[in-house]
Amino acid sequence: MLFFYYLIFLLLFITVLRPFSTLIHELGHGIPALIFTDKKVTLYLGSHGDPTKSFRIQIGRLELFFNNNPFHWKIGLCVLEQKTLSINKQIFIDLMGPLASLSLSMILSYLVFFSNFNDNVKIVLFFFNISTYYDFYINIVPSKNPIELYDGTTVFNDGKQIMDLLKYKNISDGYILGAKHYNNQDYELAALELEKVLDKGYQENIIYQLLISAYLQIKDNTNAARINNLYSNRSKKTFNSNDFSNSGLIKSFFGNYDGAIKDYDEAIKIDPNNSNALNNRGYTYNLIGDYKSAIKDFEKAILLEDSFAYALNNRGFAKIKLGLKEEGLKDLEKSMTLDGTNSYCYFNFGMYHYYNFEYEQALEYFTKAKELDSTTYKLDSYLKKVTDKLSL
Fold it and tell me: What is the spatial distance between Cα 312 and Cα 307, in angstroms, rounded to a whole number?
């Protein structure tokens, strides 16, 4: 009889009490997230972001996935659709999960020591109370051990995230100034200030990310590669989709096309809707002559973003190389209406005329591309070719 009693208690604890504790913790994150954002908030009970083998409940902007196996409900995850939040709001949302667990613990402590429940109920509440204090402890104490999510990315526990966010609040004025220059598209000044921040010893991911992006914007590929190598050596395990996409772009600039495609594969694996990664992988396929694979990527990118001028332009080039010149021309014309300052679009118009043996028109477009961006890939080579054709 005693064994049966303990078995019932154990099943109750595993299938009801522990899942309830996890739900309270995740709601501690989710409720303030709903207050501070106007987009969807998703809670996972029983997984770290896996919607499969789960049943879904939708309550307004709150989406919940419950793992079909309640024995897995001891873990959970809160995911915000809105990614741009102030540091103070992020700290508050991260902190409210452990505080929700602590509040539950304090209520249970009161029930255990001051309620009139019978002893059997108090024993159940006592062990449940211990588990909730444990939940609070393992979440609030910063841990350097990353938690691997369903999509292969990693995050840290609430305490570590809060500590990192506090570092951002205390970051040097140089970072704030560098971020301001970056947002104002003064990328050279942004890079100058962010380099100073790194030199002072601040090495948070956001600094590397902004600095790499700033160098890419001003086409300083050498410095972009230098910072990307530092960032990769330090934080490759925590790379997000955009990190892998930028890394791939840098590698493609230096002719490491296999390495670039591997990075783009990782970026798209993490976020299948990363249109920039799809476009850049397609562009790399163009560079190695795999135009059919390139077109598949461009079509996915355009499906996600129908006004994506670069993807349209690149698809036009791939079609021209496959002999579908008139279809390619339509893509180029649409790309030009969306972005008339893209040197590669003018270059590809030149390629269309070059392959039609219309060398004077080709020269006009190549020359315009040169005016817009003298570093356009293979532009000088084709300028020489078309000039030689005309001289003959």
Answer: 8
